[in-house]
Amino acid sequence: MYFGSVKFFKHLILTIVFGWIIIATGLAAFFGIKYYLTTKNLDIEDGTSYENAMVIPSNATLEQLYLILCAKGYTPDDLLNFLAKNENDSVSRFMDNYNPEDFQAENADFDIIDDNADTSEEPSPNDNNNNDNNNIETDNLNLPSYTKLYPELYADATFDFVAPEKIIYLTFDDGPSKNTLDILDILEKYDIKATFFMSGGTDDYSASLMRKVAKEGHTLAVHSMSHKYDEVYQSVETFLEDFNNTYMSIYEATGVRPQLYRFPGGSVNNHNKAIAAEIIAEVTRRGFVYHDWNISGEDATSSATWTSIYENVVYGVENMSAKRAIVLLHDSADKVTTVHTLEDIIDSLLADGYAFEALDSTIQPFTFHLTE
Ligand code: ZN
Questions:
Q1: How many other C-beta atoms are found inside a 10 Å radius of the C-beta of residue 234?
Q2: Which of 106, 271, 304, 325 has the most CB atoms lying inside 10 A of its own CB?
């Protein structure tokens, strides 16, 4: 009799053993291939990675997405790729409503002017700026009228960002003021470069301070001249007016055309919710890179003390998961405590092995994400 015999148990054991081997091999192969495909995909994205580097608000309009891509030299095909790989509201709406074939380069409503073509009949608003935006024909896009405002308010920042590690970017907002001088002295003592998101100023004293910041090799960046949230964020137009006033005061004082911008209160805050997506897209369309921060000294609050500022920055950096810190501090006239804390902050972070650098337009920004 076969069942219960020695032969039966031999076969049973062999079946179980081989069964397990086959199942284990199958599972290993399945997850191995899946893992391979996942990492391969990530490698590709890291290598070419315009989508990783794009800083686009999740509800920018399709036109804004397109202009941002074109301003950076990407093509309609890149846009298709971008749309296919990114999920956000605009992309979903676009994908729901359009046939991708309608959007092939040759059918696109968006024309990119041929560099060799004669474009002399209509001077571009950026002619004096050597800007890539020169290559974009926007007449047939249904763009808001504010995109025609302030033709000098353009930058040429790169989107091929690098994200270095173990680097501290000290950023000082709301200056210049008399405290800027003390901060410059400290930075010079340590041979450290930093970034000044300035409120600008049209008076001679502010202009001379801005020139000193520029002369000493720090990055001049745009913040907000009025810094009154209800005025700045009343509309896209009032926002651009403040941006342009600040930008022009820096440019006229120093001859430097800033590439970097920081929104008053950060890119997304309680004062700008209604227009945050639109102004982020517009700032980006104009070629600027905007920076929020991932470490705040919280030195703008009236309760800030030497200890609180020091601990916020040093412990904040030591405990952060990111490999680099964009540190928010202030150099406005009443922020004397910040000046007093700065040397100790620098000493501690140098001891922790960090290097200090100024932001420039190649550095991948840290930005708050829009929440719906
Ligand atoms: Zn500020």
A1: 17
A2: 325
| pLDDT at position 48 over 70 | no
- Report the Cα 292 to chain-centroid distance in Å: 8
pLDDT digits (tens, 9 = 90+) for 234-273: 999 999 999 999 999 999 999 999 999 999 999 989 999 8
Q: Which helix (H) or strand (E) holds 205?
A: helix 204-215
Helices 62-71 and 89-97 pack at an angle, to 10 degrees, of 110
* Cis status, amide bond into 176, omega within 30 of 0: yes
Q: Which amino acid, one-letter code, is at 321? A: S
Q: What is the pLDDT of residue 46?
A: 26
Nearest by Cα to 314 from 343, 280, 283: 343
Strands 355-356 and 324-330 come out as unpaired
**What's the 246 CA to ligand 1 centre distance in angstroms?**
12
Q: How far is the CA of 271 from the centre of ligand 1 (A)?
A: 13
CA of 312 to the centre of ligand 1 (A): 18
Give the SS3 label for residue 326. strand
Range of lowest pLDDT (35-49, 230-244, 273-287): 35-49
CA of 100 to the centre of ligand 1 (A): 43
Q: How far is the CA of 206 from the centre of ligand 1 (A)?
A: 16
What is the Å distance from ligand 1's center to 175 Cα?
Answer: 9
Q: Is the pTM of this model over 0.85?
A: no
Predicted local confidence at residue 8, as pLDDT: 76
What whole-number distance in Å separates Cα of residue 240 and Cα of residue 263? Answer: 11
Region of residue 162 (phi > 0: left; psi between -120 and 50: alpha; otherwise: beta):
beta
* Ligand 1 mean position, distance from CA 329 (Å): 9
181 C-alpha to ligand 1 centroid (Å): 18
Whether the Cβ atoms of residue 277 and residue 58 lie closer than 8 Å to each other: yes
Residue 36's pLDDT band (cuts 50, 70, 90): very low
- Higher per-residue pLDDT: 74 or 163: 163
Whether residue 159 contacts residue 68, with contact meaning beta carbons closer than 8 Å, is answered with: no
